[in-house]
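Can't paste images in this forum, so I'm doing it all in text. The chain is below; anyone willing to post the predicted structure tokens underneath?
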Amino acid sequence: MGEMTNEAREAFLAEPRLGIFTSLLADGAPIAVPVWFEWDGELALVFTGVNSPKLTRLQRDPRASLLVVNNVGEPEAWVAIDAEVRIEEEGGAELAARLADRYWDMSDDDHRATVDMWTSAGTMLRVLVFEPTAVRTYGG
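Text version of the structure:
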């Protein structure tokens, strides 16, 4: 195995998978957290709150990476999206609702209540736009 074809990469990213968002602390050390994401073939989108440490780190240094890996039981595969992340003030609530539909069973009352809270506080959410400077892959 080696690098994925474009078709394999798109199919891999179309599946609900967690991404590992890595950004830089003030001292330059990396810090990584799991996130939901949406990939449209050119950009990756993540939502976050206005008070999130992710947002603070990106405002200081927009360089970040989103690593998406295989699920347990699947053949080893991954896609890494390295980017200069742009922060958008609009669209966070809509993205959060779309991602909840992708990642959660929305028949669950607690999940619906969480999404309702996110959408009612939409001005408190931001969209992190990963504009790739590189896309690296493995698997197939």
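The beta strands are 19-24, 30-35, 38-39, 44-49, 63-69, 78-88, 125-138. The longest helix spans residues 92-103.
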